[in-house]
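Students often ask why inverse folding is considered easier than folding. One informal answer: many sequences map to the same fold, so there is more than one right answer. In these notes we will look at a single instance of the problem. The structure comes first.
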């Protein structure tokens, strides 16, 4: 391995897109034939007809927020796995609980690519402070490190003094874990005089990495990059040395959709991250993560040519309770679809004189009269079951932050 993990990272974008959508029909056929949950939702889908992003966008979403219900109805995986339980390597449980499978394949979660980009190389020792208990984070990073050819110290979480002593004795080259625990370890090292200078690289995840904290790590000699992964999907995107956005993994198809819908947003707009994985054991098709992000234009200066995203920008689930009733982003999307004049909309919830208020701010390309306003008000009432006001605004008025519902109430 050189600067890049493999040649896939530097393919021409058109070549990558062609390869992904040549593989997708096979994955759809696999899901429909071997995963009962997908057999139901993809019954009317002809796999060979889904050959581009337009076709993919017509398929139904599988929402992470629905996994608890799906798995309770059909344990343990909601009928979404294509490999029988007894043929898996391990099963994990994340809060919910949500159960996740690990198959008997090297680097099952595809984490080696992110670790390589963070500077890890064969023959190094990695100090792994991700949890090994119930959840898969520790195993995810361990399998990736071992695929590169690294040895791993399975530190897990907690026991700061014991972990620090292990670092002093074993002299690891790199740390993987949360940024907050790396800070705890480095601060404790300063306090006790422990020599942890062997650690010069870190790959962190699971939490935000503020630039001030990254700079603090750099000042202590630890070059720190981050990655974006989930227990369901494995690696989604990762930073390179260029540190200009996160580069999408080669083993997935990533879309950004309008929250509450499955409709792709224009390039650059903030929306919900939806992932289709080519994992044959857990063939998640249009898996809606609930996370917000946006696509960055152009390619990374590091030479990797895949799509880049801005990283984690918040949560897409913006459901709010107004006057005793829930209002969902999907309902706002239904209102917008009824009126082609609306280019973008945001429902703002507030309180006035002790009562909840709803105002739908609608961007329009052309000025409109009271007739359109009244029609939108009627749609809100019919779809949401609540009275709402409408404010018509010019394009560019609403922030590009992925919010469909903004709740301004102080409910403390």
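Output (designed amino acids):
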């Amino acid at each position: 391995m050189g600067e890049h993990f493999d040649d896939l990272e530097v393919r021409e974008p058109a070549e990558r897109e062609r390869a992904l959508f040549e593989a997708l029909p096979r994955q759809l056929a696999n899901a429909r034939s071997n995963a009962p949950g997908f057999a139901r939702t993809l019954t009317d889908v002809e796999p060979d007809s889904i050959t581009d992003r337009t076709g993919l966008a017509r398929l139904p979403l599988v929402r992470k927020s629905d996994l608890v219900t799906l798995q309770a109805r059909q344990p343990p995986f909601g009928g979404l796995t294509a490999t029988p339980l007894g043929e898996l390597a391990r099963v994990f449980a994340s809060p919910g609980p949500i159960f996740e499978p690990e198959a008997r394949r090297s680097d099952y979660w595809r984490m080696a690519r992110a670790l390589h980009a963070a500077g890890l190389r064969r023959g190094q020792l990695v100090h792994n402070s991700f949890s090994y208990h119930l959840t898969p984070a520790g195993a995810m990073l361990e399998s990736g490190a071992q695929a590169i050819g690294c040895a791993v110290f399975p530190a897990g979480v907690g026991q700061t003094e014991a972990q620090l002593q292990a670092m002093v004795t074993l002299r690891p080259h790199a740390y993987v874990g949360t940024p907050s625990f790396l800070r705890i370890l480095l601060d404790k090292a300063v306090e006790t005089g422990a020599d942890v200078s062997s650690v010069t690289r870190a790959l962190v995840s699971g939490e935000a990495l503020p630039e001030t904290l990254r700079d603090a790590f750099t000042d202590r000699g630890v070059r720190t990059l981050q990655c974006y992964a989930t227990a369901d999907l494995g690696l989604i995107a990762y930073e390179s040395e260029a540190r200009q956005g996160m580069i999408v993994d080669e083993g997935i198809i990533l879309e950004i959709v309008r929250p509450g819908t499955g409709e792709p947003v224009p390039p650059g707009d903030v929306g919900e991250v939806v992932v289709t994985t080519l994992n044959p054991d857990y063939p998640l098709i249009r898996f809606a993560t609930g996370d917000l992000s946006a696509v960055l234009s152009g390619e990374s200066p590091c030479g990797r040519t895949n799509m880049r995203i801005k990283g984690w920008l918040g949560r897409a689930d913006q459901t709010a309770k107004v006057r005793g009733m829930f209002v969902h982003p999907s309902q706002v999307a239904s209102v917008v679809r009824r009126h082609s004049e609306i280019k973008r909309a945001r429902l703002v919830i507030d309180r006035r004189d002790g009562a909840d208020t709803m105002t739908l701010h609608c961007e329009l390309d052309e000025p409109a009269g009271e007739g359109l306003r009244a029609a939108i008000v009627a749609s809100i009432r019919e779809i949401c079951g609540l009275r709402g006001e409408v404010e018509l605004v010019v394009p560019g008025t609403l922030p590009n932050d992925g919010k469909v519902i903004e709740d301004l109430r102080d409910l403390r």
